[in-house]
Amino acid sequence: MRAAAAIETFLEMMSAERGAAQNTLESYRRDLDDAAAFSAATGVQLTLAEPSIIRSYLDDIAGRGFAATSQARRLSALRQFFRFLYTENIRADDPTSTLDTPKKDRPLPKILSESDVEKLLSRAEEETRDGKASHLAHFHALRLHALLEILYATGLRVSELVGLPVTVARADHRFLMVRGKGSKDRMVPLSTKAREVMNKYLAERDLQPNLPDNPWLFPAMSESGFLARQVFARELKGLTARAGLKASAISPHVLRHAFASHLLQNGADLRAVQQLLGHSDISTTQIYTHVMEERLHRLVTEHHPLAD
Q: Which of 41, 106, 240, 253 is a Cys-bridge partner for 247, taking CB atoms 3.0 to 4.6 Å apart?
């Protein structure tokens, strides 16, 4: 089987049987197409590649400046691809089985202090009360405030946030039902403040022409029908600067980190945070253990009778 056909068949399987998200499928396609082009340049179809070719490919992307995390992701895509070929009897072996995963340092997530988050949310709320703003600017201010309050209250991935259906707001429940990676659903609690801000935004949203029929909470004139992640990130950067904070240090994902870190700092259980973030593996959530270590150290130094 030629590489292009094998890749298409593999992606169809990932979509139909494993429920892989569109972003995941596109990432697999890019990685496998790149590996297939490298293998073809050596005169061998990717489906017939030996371990030496895969190893040379990994050396090649390392030479192109790919970080260890990116190299590991490429190898992971190849492992799944060749495992699929082996399972389907398309080839008799898995050439990636003897390859080591590139070692990578796991960077600590960027952390925002609670006071910085409060500054950001206060500035967002303040801008919704600007009496001189145009109708459209007022609507955008309400939208940005709602996005931030929901994000910090729930720790959603930015793709989950901008893609929320409007029915979650109309339900007026204390929990949001969120569809995350792999089409897995999870419930996350919504704070009273976040729900109030969301309802205020929703009331204004329903007054906008043509928007009430849109199925998304944060609609936009885009291919998806909802607000693009890049637009939200750009608006957040602008708000951050206006709040007197360093724009380069804040992004939607940093606020997700802040949600998790602040929960742990205030005594939340790591397993509970794992469930709220939608991590399938506890090891992913363990990047936040340095926060717990700081809290435990402070607990001992402040309360142990023999502490200095």
A: 240
Percent of the chain with pLDDT over 70: 89
Start-to-end CA distance of the chain, whole Å, equals 70
| Amino acid identity at 278 | G
Residue 2 known to be catalytic: no
Domains 3-87 and 114-299 fall in the same CATH topology = no
Residue 140 is a catalytic residue:
no
Q: Which CATH architecture has domain 114-299?
A: Orthogonal Bundle (1.10)
Q: 3-class SS at 264?
A: helix
Task: Find the catalytic residue in 143, 256, 257, 262.
Answer: 256
- The alpha carbons of the chain give a radius of gyration, in whole angstroms, of 23
What is the average pLDDT score of the chain?
87
- Residue range 1-47, pLDDT digits in tens: 789 999 999 999 999 888 888 998 999 999 999 999 999 999 999 99
- Listing DSSP states for 137-196 in one string gives HHHHHHHHHHHHHHHHHH---HHHHHT-BTHHHHT--SEEEEE-GGG-EEEEE--HHHHH
Confirm whether 201 is a catalytic residue. Answer: no
Top-tier CATH class for 3-87:
mainly alpha
Q: Is residue 253 among the annotated active site residues?
A: yes
